[in-house]
Amino acid sequence: MRVLKSILVPAALAALLAACGGSERVEDYVPTKLVAFGDELSVINSDGSKYGVNALKTNSTELDCATYPVWPQVVASGFGLVFPQCNSSGVLTTSAEMKAVAGAKVADVVSAVGAYQASTGFSRTTLVTLMAGQNDILEAYASWVAGTLTRDQAKAQVAALGRTLGTLVNTITASGSGGRVLYATPAHLGYSPFAASEVASSGSEDRRTMLKELTTSFVEAMRLAVANDGQYAALITGDELTVSMSDNTRLASYSLTNNTDVACTVTPLTSCTTATLVSGAASSGTTYLWAGAQVPGPNWQSRVGSAALNRARNNPF
């Protein structure tokens, strides 16, 4: 049986993920191109691999990159757009560009967007997906653990970077003359297996608390910085989705069996496939929230992507 390429977002969840929108749509928005910026949570590599669970073709070791899409891929597919990294037949016209880079921080994304604006530019029919911040949060957390930043300094550092990313959204849209942006908040690291391991190794619950505070500081600052009335940019709250999927009373509603452990048994995560999962993941990976200690799996990716696609179709872009 072929694995579903996308996991639909319940109507109630769509409201949770959506930011308030603007006026009603006058005509359907039809992008001619999609450009993805961000970190490993958005990446498709040249061989079709992703940072998470990679599907395999039936009775094969060959990757099936169309299954278990990353969230920008869900959006692109919904508009009939194709990334060259996932065009194995070579017969489709590629109309999506992958500018996300594993390990990227906010400063790297700002540079990538600036370079793209200078060389190509954005128009109304350019749809941009943007997610970053996770690596900045982890960097600030590591500095706090090491004692080089105080708690308040670490939170201020990520808040400043959140504002920078929010301002970048405004730069891309350029008061309506630029691209349209789907900007997503990162997964909430306070609920990650990494947070649990930090508590276990230190014996202090404050480690998890700090990861929660840093994620919240980044996300709140980013959201406040975006001049968004729904006409040019739309928010997808990946952090809130993480919190919701981490609620044990909601496991069944998300088709999950595990929201605390990692599904992948190998590193790097680009090598993780449906053949290298823990026994509880049932060779699919969609029943586990987390692929790796800091990286959510295809269930989360698909829901973020479906929510983003819904916003692009319904916002008055």
Automatic annotation (TrEMBL):
SUPFAM superfamilies reported for this sequence: SGNH hydrolase (SSF52266)
The residue stretches assigned to a coiled coil in this entry are none
Q: Where on the tree of life does the source sit, at the highest rank?
A: Bacteria
Keywords, ordered alphabetically: Signal
Signal sequence coordinates: 1-21
Write down the InterPro entries for this protein, in alphabetical order. Answer: SGNH_hydro_sf (IPR036514)
* Protein name, as recorded: Esterase
Instruction: State the species of origin.
Output: Sphaerotilus uruguayifluvii
Q: What is this organism's lineage?
A: Bacteria, Pseudomonadati, Pseudomonadota, Betaproteobacteria, Burkholderiales
